[in-house]
Write a sequence for this structure.
């Protein structure tokens, strides 16, 4: 079973905070908000730091974000590999923080949380032009040996939910029973959805596809899918000419059926290439932009699975 390493920072809470009736949480990105909301439910609120449609790769904190963080009972984020803009602010903060992904600086044993799908990195041994070399450097700068899009793996998020529950129980022992009930309900729904998705996507495991942004590798690995390539690691950077040529060659293979773009980003280059090829164009949202809190994290996974199935049919 996969194991996600966690880093937690728990600070002493004032009596006023302990006496607070409703929990106030902050999640950096929408998928983490969906998980945290399932644990908190009617015991409080989970504010979203990065608004829908914005990218955690290039976000800048606003004064309103700082005020939201300052009143939080718990701040939940992936870590500096994803929300680099948040690192210094959280180091200066006295709020309780749950960091879901360890870095090498946090722990010398970096191998515990390395999850590299075969399709995750493209290892081509050919000469690169200057743009391609910059792109390859950028890939290592953003992801290194760890994919920070940890919410793409349901087992990671099950462990994240348990960690959220444990921290809130420490802060508010009087809510322990209700928090445990909420966690068990989340676990039951998630495992049921995971089993359903495994069955749903099993017929498409050999069908190849290409994604716009390297954000789905943990989902691909978990469900045994056949992602052949990605256009870019950084959605704000266009792929180089040689990479486009390699991807176009892949898209001409008979087993490759689909290219996925994302609602957050314009991808005219991708759409131009696909227009002349016998492949489908689908959409995958790495940030759960349109998912409601009532649909939840399990609903988000189902939505991804439905989009993949629809495009690969």
């Amino acid at each position: 079973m996969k194991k996600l390493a966690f880093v937690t920072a728990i600070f002493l809470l004032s009596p006023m905070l302990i006496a607070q009736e409703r929990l106030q949480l902050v999640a950096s990105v929408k998928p983490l908000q969906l998980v945290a909301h399932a644990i908190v439910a009617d015991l409080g609120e989970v504010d979203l730091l990065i608004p829908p449609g914005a990218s955690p790769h290039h976000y800048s904190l606003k004064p309103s974000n700082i005020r939201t963080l300052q009143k939080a009972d718990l701040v939940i984020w992936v870590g500096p590999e994803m929300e680099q803009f948040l690192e210094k602010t959280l180091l200066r903060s006295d709020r309780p923080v749950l960091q879901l992904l360890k870095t090498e600086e946090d722990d010398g044993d970096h191998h515990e949380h390395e999850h590299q799908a075969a399709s995750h990195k493209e290892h081509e041994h050919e000469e690169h032009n200057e743009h391609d070399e910059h792109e390859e450097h950028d890939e290592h700068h953003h992801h290194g040996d760890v994919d920070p899009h940890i919410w793409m793996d349901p087992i990671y998020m099950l462990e994240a939910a348990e960690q959220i529950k444990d921290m809130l129980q420490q802060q508010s022992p009087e809510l322990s029973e209700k928090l445990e009930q909420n966690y068990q309900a989340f676990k039951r729904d998630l495992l049921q959805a995971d089993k359903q998705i495994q069955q749903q996507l099993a017929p498409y495991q050999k069908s190849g596809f290409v994604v716009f942004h390297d954000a789905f590798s943990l989902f691909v690995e978990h469900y045994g899918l056949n992602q052949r390539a990605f256009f870019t690691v950084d959605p704000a950077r266009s792929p180089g000419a040689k990479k486009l040529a390699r991807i176009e060659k892949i898209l001409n293979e008979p087993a490759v059926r689909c290219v996925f773009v994302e609602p957050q980003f314009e991808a005219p280059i991708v759409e131009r290439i696909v227009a002349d090829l016998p492949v489908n164009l689908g959409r995958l949202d790495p940030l759960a932009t349109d998912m409601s809190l009532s649909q939840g994290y399990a609903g988000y996974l189902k939505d991804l699975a439905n989009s993949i199935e629809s495009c690969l049919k």
User: Anything to note?
Assistant: Confidence is low (pLDDT under 50) at residues 10-20, 107-143. The radius of gyration is 20 Å. Residues 176-201 form the longest helix (26 residues).
